[in-house]
Amino acid sequence: MEYKLPQNFILGAATSAWQAEGWTDKNGRDNFVDMMYKAAPERWNNGIGPTIADDFYNKWSEDIDLMKKTGLSAIRISIDWSRFIDNYENATINEKGAQFYDNVIDKLNNIGIMPMICLEHWELPKVLYDKYGGYDSLKIVDLYVKYAKKVFERYNGKVKYFWTFNEPIVIPQLCFMDGFWYPYKTDTKLAMQWIYGKILANAKVVAAFKEMNITGKIGIILNPSVIYSRSELNENDKKAKEVADLFYWKSFMDPCIKGQFPKELIDLLKKENCMFEYKEEDLAIIKNNTIDILGFNYYQPMRVMGQRFKPAENMSFHPTKYFEEYDMPGKKINPYRGWEIYPKALYDAAMRIKNEYNNIEWMVTESGMGVEGEEKYKNEDGVIQDDYRIDFYKEHLVWLLKAMAEGSNCKGYMVWNWLDNISPVNSLKNRYGLVELDLKNNRKRRIKKSGYWFNKLENEKTFHYKTIDQEYK
Ligand code: BG6
Description:
16 helices, Glyco_hydro_1, 19 strands, three-stranded mixed sheet, glycosidase, GH, alpha/beta
């Protein structure tokens, strides 16, 4: 069947500063992820980390030409706060660092690729973290606002979409609640204080954006879990889903879009002694400064069921006290990343955004499939034949188009990533790019089959795929 995308539909890609740039000219100005890497490089796949990353800092100009060849109509980059600012307390600009972003943004505009800026993809400067802590500190919140204003002043008129944060739940969750990443803490109250601080910082930056009369839109990029219960007939499973939804969907969605935290979440946090500290006047800032547009990152759904085991009494609180992850038999899985592939979740999320969040304007800001050992899919010309990735994109677009036909206000679909990239721990094990990064050959770039396909999709705005009924037979 033939599918058509609207002519003005944004087809692009996303990347981030620490996953692309490398440390040239950083002179030890580490950010939070650099710190995570330096604390335990041996935990990262083959010890590969942000040191060189994609070397985008040096290769940005040829890379932008290559982005054009893969048909990107937009690219989301992040600005590395630790590179852009010189003196964090006064937010004076590091001219050399800022010049790099000027060059990138100017060339993107000249070549006809719309730049989108994300202010923070976890690049909190390390020295600030050492001195004040993270977003649990109101001082950090205010320094972040100062930095954001400098970015707005410099790029006003050159950039149409500004995003405050990328996946602001990830660092509090993985570093401070689950203990998976450095500094390996399991302190839910601290994680909630970070979450609250990021929500307040988002609102303050939205307020500054409006006060400064910046052109374009301001949004936040979230990764809310699309949650399914094992069975809607089982009361424990339903309850499990409700609690997971409070933490992993509503915690950011509600305050950033509706201006308010869900009462059930606040009640639960108080009951579990994990309530964050707040000031009434800050709640008013959150209420009055909601986002214009939502960025939605989606990789896999979350399936839950009722908790079968009682957690030990002396354990510090974690949301999984109320639910367990459900490993659904027969689910389709990406065996490399271990993540379920369930494109219908995009449709379900779209309908929820439409019905519960006043049909706010939104776009998919990350969607992708990480695959290991892609060299084995090379043809005789050395081009990776990643038909699995093309199918992955098509099946997600099919469900998105269905949602749009039913009134969802979705404006675009951005893939993760345009070029293979590093990430914490898995670093370049699973490859996501439309373009291959050849580590053995001085990080040479080579367009994959999906890159040529994406270019065709952007030019023609049509593609062929099975119908939803055929896919789910
Ligand atoms: C998203 C992040 O959560 O997932 C990216 O915004 C990250 O930074 C991506 O790279 C894929 O995750 P991973 O661990 O498979 O690289």
